[in-house]
Amino acid sequence: MAGSVWDEPTRRVAPVGAGRRRVAVAGKAALGMVAALVLAATGYGWTTLNGLTNGLVTSNALDGEAGSLGGDTNILIMGLDSRLDENGNPLPQDIYDALHAGDEQNGGYNANVLMLLHVPGDGSRAASISIPRDDYVDLPGCPDGVCKGKIKQAYGYAFDQKARELIAQGVTDKTQREQQARDAGRKAQIDTVRQFLGGVPVDHFVEVTLVAFFQIAQVVQPITVCVNQDTQDSYSGANFHKGMQQIDAQQAVAFVRQRRDYVHPELNFTDLDRARRQQAFIISLAYQLKQGGAFANPAKLQQILDVAKQNTALDSRLDVLTFARQASSLTGGNVTFVTLPIDHFGKSPKGEDVNFVDLAQIRGIVAQLIGTPPPTSTVAVPTAKVSIVNSTSRNGLAAQTQQFLAGKGFTITSVGTDNRHRLATSTIFYGRDAADAANALSGALGGGIAVKADSEIAAGHVQLVIGADFKLPAAGGGGQPGGGTTSPTTVTTTPPGSGGDDPGLGGISGGQIPCVK
Question: Which InterPro entries match (predicted)?
């Protein structure tokens, strides 16, 4: 494959800067929610469609991970900045021509779309939480030897590391190598997002590539959108007039990727404005799907599903029918779209432009949005037995942790040190019937520690392995059970389409087409 990652395994991040080479990031943030809408849509025509999941790419990247409680579902939606399909093959030339997106040589494996879709088990209002792609975060496990970076980069670093390992092992099947490397990327990205958001369980994921956005827009077009005032941009091809208007698939690409307007500089576009555009487009798409009768049209539904099969990957645990039934209200507007705030812009030690965030604020907002019990509430302590292993060179850390957890009501059965293996990432392993205890333990330690099932752990037991990234919360800190922390930041919203300079956290409610900058 000319120009594939297997010929050049260190290629992962497209060059930063303006110009045509950034075009194919085009539909990046709209990609993810399109996939979720496809899943929700399938519930309407399920009985008329046969072999729905046949041909879908599935992944075991979430095997062994603890899930949400109370029937809630959290789905991480990842949109890759890639000009390749799910098997690593080039796209048809007519697609490249239509998108003005370069070719398979462009792009990479950054997860330029990161959205957490929270669907409550009780049918109450869902939330779609957009994570700005350039947020500067810790990367659990230090993929490819990188321990801090932009949140979107976890996937690409882990992909490249695995790609080189497979080549060194002599694996010759390119599809097999692509999928194994992507699974490594998926795991790293999921772990990074989970830790960043405070240990929020990730029950499922949906991964889409660039072409999915364009192809679904082709099926559904024309699509109605709304902007607050005239705007145009030669880089993206955007040229929109104030108010409501109908656009085709190519115009949709321009709509979701515009982030500048030199003709109207007072608009002061940023990446966050583009995120708002993408959220607005998803709402418009859902509206079009419902109002246009797509849900009652098996042929059109099949077209959408065929696109999903070509350019979408799902985790193997996702039961599409069950989710479709649970999420059927999404297309009726029962979802709020939110973009997490940033504190300030700056430079990383590598000189990259990044977003710096207030981590406590982020985690408080997320906890409030997805209905996590407030940190000040008292939660019953699970009865599982907990062992602690210190795999760092910091003497006494296990004993300090024992004292901290005992004060929160946990039963500590053993404390030890592993001098042979120095781990970078802390992890909580649990045996049968101990998932709740493992999640509670993670919450008590601040919520940022990955939780994994382990068949070698005895039933009813949990093991905390302390890695180099471990930070013991301050006295009285941590999450549930017991203890208290500063109350989460109140989630404020701005009227949809208010056109303010800072889209920040302002929520957009689904159901009607919003006007945006």
Answer: LytR/CpsA/Psr_C, LytR/CpsA/Psr_CW_biosynth, LytR_CpsA_psr
